[in-house]
UniProtKB/TrEMBL annotation:
Its cofactor is FMN. GO terms for molecular function: 2 iron, 2 sulfur cluster binding; metal ion binding; oxidoreductase activity. Keywords: 2Fe-2S, Flavoprotein, FMN, Iron, Iron-sulfur, Metal-binding, Oxidoreductase. This is Oxidoreductase. PROSITE patterns: 2FE2S_FER_1 (PS00197), 2FE2S_FER_2 (PS51085), FAD_FR (PS51384). Residues 3-105 form the FAD-binding FR-type domain. Gene3D superfamilies: 3.10.20.30, Nucleotide-binding domain of ferredoxin-NADP reductase (FNR) module, Translation factors. Residues 234-321 form the 2Fe-2S ferredoxin-type domain.
Length: 321
């Protein structure tokens, strides 16, 4: 067991939508859980050494439970499939304490929350928090069809229902979200938050930039990566500075895989360049960034990289590991 893990019990499991379940996690002894901020996630141990991170979608004011929404990915490598098949009510599992790479700026004059599909989960927690603050916000929920729209009944019954607009492709072109119309008049006190498939997020980022939004006011979190295959490209050498080992990383193998095979411990979770668990300091060399975790500015600094997916432009990388 990893030392910082929390043992929690699945109190409720609900079929939320086609291919999506909601899990309500509680302390087995009935106590309070560690607090979390809107936008936070927990890493879930799914068995066989795998962990996956899922956003907390209930109100941060609640201390008695965590609620997760889990989409069964068609190309699941054992994570979401294991949860759908093996996580039942009454089962005890282990999760990390809440962590947040998608923080809400509570000082904003207005917040625009934009969700694509299962990307609704962190934005639900943000909506609950903004409502509790009495803050100005709007939530746009984009889905292909209503059968796959998780938490739709909760949104309709929520105290902020009038702030929610559902954009369903099945309802025709008029119902689809017009990102340009929504973003065409940027205000310095307005912040935008988007989560969903990579193409959806990238489209919003492109429109926001084209409409001259301040980069610092546009926040995003990918729940799955759409990055190049981590093993593609030519080979290179990694010097693990703490152990003194030099490890060949051939084409077809990630840095993390090569280091693990050499006996060097590498913290891993998503293995897709999303969560930042394997973020490592670069002491020498030029990384080839293939993640969706680092900002453009952080990538340009070339002083950190994600070992699960990124590679090297230089023949040698010296890493602080």
């Amino acid at each position: 067991m990893i030392s910082d893990r929390l043992k929690v019990k699945i109190r409720r499991r609900v079929h939320e939508a086609e291919g999506i379940i909601a899990l309500e996690l509680v302390d087995p002894s009935g106590g309070e859980l560690p607090p979390f901020d809107a936008g936070a996630h927990v890493e879930v141990d799914v068995g066989n050494g795998l962990t996956r991170h899922y956003s907390l979608c209930n109100s941060p004011q609640e201390r008695d439970r965590y609620v997760l929404g889990v989409l069964r990915e068609p190309s699941s490598r054992g994570g979401s499939a294991s949860i759908h098949e093996g996580f039942h009510e009454g089962t005890c599992i282990e999760v990390s304490p809440p962590r947040n790479h998608f923080a809400l700026d509570e000082s904003a004059g207005h917040s625009v929350l934009v969700a694509g599909g299962i990307g609704i989960t962190p934005l639900l927690a943000m909506a609950w928090r903004l409502h509790a603050l009495g803050a100005s916000f709007e939530l746009h929920y984009c889905v292909r069809n209503r059968a796959r729209a998780a938490f739709i009944d909760l949104l309709r019954q929520s105290p902020f229902a009038e702030r929610v607009t559902v954009h369903c492709d099945d309802d025709g072109d008029a119902a689809r979200l017009n990102m340009r119309a929504m973003l065409q008049n940027p205000r310095p006190d307005t912040h935008v938050y988007v989560c969903g498939p990579g193409g959806f997020i990238n489209a919003l980022i492109y429109v926001a930039r084209d409409c001259a939004w301040n980069e610092a006011n546009v926040h995003y979190e990918f729940f799955a990566a759409s990055v190049c295959a981590s093993g593609a490209g030519s080979g290179f050498v990694v010097h693990a500075a703490r152990s003194g080992l030099r490890v060949d990383v051939p084409a077809g193998k990630s840095v993390a895989q090569a280091l693990l095979e050499a006996g060097i411990d590498v913290p891993l979770s998503c293995e897709q360049g999303v969560c930042g668990t394997c973020l490592t300091r670069v002491l020498e060399g030029v990384p080839e960034h293939r993640d969706v975790f680092l900002t453009p500015e952080e990538r340009a600094a070339n002083d950190r990289m994600l070992l699960c997916c990124s590679r090297a432009h230089s023949p040698l990388l010296r890493l602080d590991i």
